[in-house]
């Protein structure tokens, strides 16, 4: 008997069967986790949930963290890409570590972070990250060494060196975050855009210390941010260059009356006007401010602003 008419039917059935199992092939790993300190989730600890995630996943993975205070150091390794940490309620990740306690030589600072993100395509939402060492020197709360890392409505709490943004060419984004510290509390070589954030100065020192590589067109850009001071704190500086090609720009930010009239310090670099780029766009009173600022800083015009949009600064990253 001629069975040739059945062949197309059998092929079609095989294709349908293969298509049916393809989604499960991509979902052979968990894409949703819950962490809860009361035991109601998949894990008690955030790090344990991260360690259970598939490396280099095809699909994004979300870890939802129930309200609570998690006393642990958390690391997102380079292979845990496409990971989101989402706080549900008031979530605090707290850890006590500082330069002296680490005691690993001149680079001890970089080992002190409460949360260190080494992976690309990381997102954090509604999480507080705190280094609880107090005013004892360098003590990082957040260290980011991944590309395309975003933080929404997070609180980053520390003193000296609160937030370290690392990696030449890496792009990082902060929206509606609260960041506080004392000395150089936002520092590093990455390209970062801060939007609608609050910067709380806990001492009369420096907000930023960029170490922008010479090859990077942008360093740190602050858009519509608010600078606040803790009670009793005197005037502060917008920044000083950790390395001589530092680039930092403040656009339409609310300083109150807390910024020193000079605006910036040069950290001892000779002829900073030849290498450092520090600039501001102030809608009101810009001429008065320009006269008071150090002569090697810049005042932007409205026509310059398109060059400092989120899309320009973080070019190539689709949110």
Automatic annotation (TrEMBL):
Its EC number is 3.1.1.11. The active site is at 184. GO terms for molecular function: pectinesterase activity. Residues 34-311 form the Pectinesterase catalytic domain. GO terms for biological process: cell wall modification; pectin catabolic process. It comes from the Bacteria. Pfam families: Pectinesterase. It is an enzyme of class 3 (hydrolase). SUPFAM superfamilies: Pectin lyase-like (SSF51126). PROSITE patterns: PECTINESTERASE_1 (PS00800), PECTINESTERASE_2 (PS00503). Keywords: Aspartyl esterase, Hydrolase. Pathway: Glycan metabolism; pectin degradation; 2-dehydro-3-deoxy-D-gluconate from pectin: step 1/5. GO terms for cellular component: cell outer membrane. It catalyses: [(1->4)-alpha-D-galacturonosyl methyl ester](n) + n H2O = [(1->4)-alpha-D-galacturonosyl](n) + n methanol + n H(+). Belongs to the pectinesterase family. This is Pectinesterase. The lineage of its organism: Bacteria, Pseudomonadati, Verrucomicrobiota, Opitutia, Puniceicoccales.
């Amino acid at each position: 008997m001629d069975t040739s008419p059945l062949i197309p039917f059998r092929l079609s059935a095989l294709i349908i069967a293969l298509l049916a199992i393809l989604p499960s092939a991509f979902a052979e790993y968990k894409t949703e986790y819950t962490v809860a300190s009361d035991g109601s989730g998949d894990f008690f600890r955030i790090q344990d949930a991260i360690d259970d995630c598939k490396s280099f996943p095809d699909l994004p993975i979300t870890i939802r963290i129930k309200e609570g205070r998690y006393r642990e150091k958390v690391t997102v390794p380079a292979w845990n890409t496409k990971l989101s940490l989402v706080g549900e309620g008031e979530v605090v990740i707290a850890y006590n570590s500082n330069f002296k306690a680490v005691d690993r030589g001149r680079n001890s600072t970089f080992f002190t972070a409460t949360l260190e993100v080494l992976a690309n395509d990381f997102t954090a939402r509604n999480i507080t990250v705190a280094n609880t060492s107090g005013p004892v020197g360098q003590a990082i709360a957040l260290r980011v060494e991944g590309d395309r890392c975003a933080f929404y409505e997070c609180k980053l709490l520390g003193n000296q060196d609160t937030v370290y943004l690392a990696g030449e060419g890496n792009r990082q984004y902060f929206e509606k975050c609260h960041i506080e510290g004392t000395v150089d509390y936002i520092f590093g070589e990455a390209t970062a855009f801060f939007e609608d954030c609050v910067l709380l100065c806990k001492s009369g020192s420096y907000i930023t210390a960029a170490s922008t590589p010479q090859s990077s067109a942008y360093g740190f850009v602050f858009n519509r941010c608010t600078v606040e001071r803790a009670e009793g704190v005197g005037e502060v500086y917008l920044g000083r260059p950790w390395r001589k090609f530092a680039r930092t720009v403040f656009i339409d930010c609310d300083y109150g009356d807390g910024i020193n009239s000079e605006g910036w310090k040069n950290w001892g670099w000779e002829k900073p006007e030849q290498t450092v780029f520090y600039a501001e766009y102030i809608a009101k009173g810009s001429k008065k401010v320009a006269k008071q600022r150090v002569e090697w800083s810049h005042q932007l015009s409205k026509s310059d602003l398109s060059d400092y949009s989120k899309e320009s600064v973080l070019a190539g990253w689709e949110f």
